[in-house]
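anyone seen this seq b4? input:
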Amino acid sequence: MARRLLIASLATVVISTMATAQTAPTNATSPVGPAQIDKTTQTEDVRFRNEDNDRMTVPVRLAGEGPYRFLVDTGSNRTTISRQLVSRLNLQPGAGVQVHSVAGVTNASTAKVPEIQLTHRAVKIADAPVLDGANMGADGILGTDSLAAQRVVFDFTDQTMSIVPSSTPDFHEEPGTIVVEGKRRNGRLVVTDATADGHSLIVVLDTGSQVTIGNDALRAVLLNHRRAANSQPIEIESVTGEKITGDFTFVSDLEVGGITLQNLAVVFAPAHTFKQLKLDNRPALLLGMNAIRAFKKVSIDFSRLTMRVIVPEHSALDVKVATAAD
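predicted toks r here
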């Protein structure tokens, strides 16, 4: 029987803990505690919630109400709000849009969000796509349109996430710090200096996904060289309720900007996201939280187009830094 995956965002997946388990949605109207303020930096450190399925949710205020639980998804270029929250706040409707999920394109209504506030800086979202909260598993999704000119910092030791202006100094050169240069592609941050088992590919940073997703072009390259042959069938369900089928397997070595992750779990699937980014015919993958969590600290800067990581002494994954001797 195929295990089942539930999409946690417009471009990503989370995996259930049991083969046939359904992921329980969060309460779409339950307020949470206020954000904590880091007095030393004068920025707000928002303690994120690590759900059973590894989704990253943070408290967000909308139009002065809340806070509510939103997923943080650097793999989505649109901030999305649940239908239940739109009704609760009586938000005005906007123009209809097409939502691009991993499963395809769906027509959706939108809502005008006068103000969305994660930290002290408020952002106005003119037309936020409206989706069912049960499918999202949260009150909404924070996409890159809410994170432009910002830096997202995950501290997995302290279980905190900070969103600060890009001009704010990043964490210093602590031992094990590596800076990876990226590029912007349709609002997402991508890394082109990457290889999988020695084959070049493009990596899209995707904090909304628990598991890394590879496209068919990458799988074909690895299979031609007798890699990624053993796999298990996986059913993926998008935030719109549509489903596609993929294969769960492992990639021996993924190198991103001089950092190598070994034996990385990857789901190979014909995700529509690759087509949307014009990456369906080139080896590519969406780098999910199973890879990002291998580090002590990660910052993703959408203005400077960089990812900075601190490599831990020990990790759940085998992680090494490439050197001239390697």
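The domain at 171-321 is CATH 2.40.70.10 (Cathepsin D, subunit A; domain 1). The longest strand covers residues 243-256. kinda curious what u guys think
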